[in-house]
Amino acid sequence: MTFVQLIDCRTSRFDEMNRLLDQWVEQTKGKRTATHDIIGKDRSDASHFIEIVEFPSYEEAMRNSSLPETDRIFQEMVALCDETPTFTDLDVVRDEQLNTLAARTFFEAMGRMEPERIGDHLTDDYVDHDPSYPQPVQGVAGVREQYAGWRAAFDFTFRIDDQLAQGDQVCTRWMWTARHKGEFLGIPATGQDVAMQGMTWQRFRNGKICESHWLYDRAGLLEQLGVLGQ
Question: Could you say which residues form the signal peptide (predicted)?
Answer without folding.
Answer: none
